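A note from the maintainers: we've had questions about how concatenated examples are separated. There is no special marker in the raw files; a new sequence line simply starts the next protein. For clarity in this README we add a label.
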Amino acid sequence: MSALYRNSIRFFRVIGTIFILQIMGGMLPAHAAEPGTTAPLLTVYKDANCGCCEKWLTHIRERGFSVNAHNINNLYEFKQSKGIPASMQSCHTAVSSQGYVFEGHIPAKFISRFLATPPKDAIGLTVPAMPVGSPGMEYQDKFMPYQVLLLKNDGSSQVYAQVNSLEESVQ
């Protein structure tokens, strides 16, 4: 084989590989983690019979999070052990690899924002109860405005974000 022929084959292999990688890149979810980065890991504790928790897990996964889900029977005690006051609890609790807690139906974008720049003296975020229209709690086109609250080490909380529309909730 001539050197020109070998170089031509190499050239077309490179072009073909680039083409295939571009096609495969288009198959990734719109909110997937950037190549070369590690998707944030959340370990989620929930009740085995909770359908809205499964919907929330789908929301989180579609936005680039890795998830390990565990069904447990003693959720209330678990939440208390993580410092989540009873008035701030919801149906599931996620714990980041850094130890932060994310209670309830929090939109993924707020978890991402929190993890990028964790506020001082914070243990995590919560969306108490189960507001209609929050991720996992979608029902028709109904929506109830809600707040994402910052949970602090001292047991207090403050508003972290206000969610006023269904579009804001599921982004």
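[label: protein 2]
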Amino acid sequence: MTRRLTLRVTGGSAEVSQAQATLVAWLEEDDADPRTIARAELLVEEIALNALDHGQARGVTIAATRDEDGLGLVFEDDGGAFDPTTAPLPDLERALEEATIGGRGLVLLRKLATALRYERTAEGHNRLSMTLS
């Protein structure tokens, strides 16, 4: 049986934190693996805050589905076009003093998610889909 949850975030970090808490409680009801819960919580924070802060999105919709194959997450926002699946990664080999700000979330996203897919919808929205298994 597939379970579904949809969350909408239009504000800043406090609203993102509430979405995280709701998602965590929903996953705990289903006895999800603690590792999956932690990864999902981190991804919600990273993706939603970046869309709101850097992409100037007015809102982010987070759709979660849970079935025997794992957890699916779809993030959709109305911000500027940004494909995190092809954006260049930062040079992580640089010394701390030489490191630039930004891009570390891309590394996290690509390491934590599987079946990562981006599309720009006909409505001009970013849609990022992933599976956590």
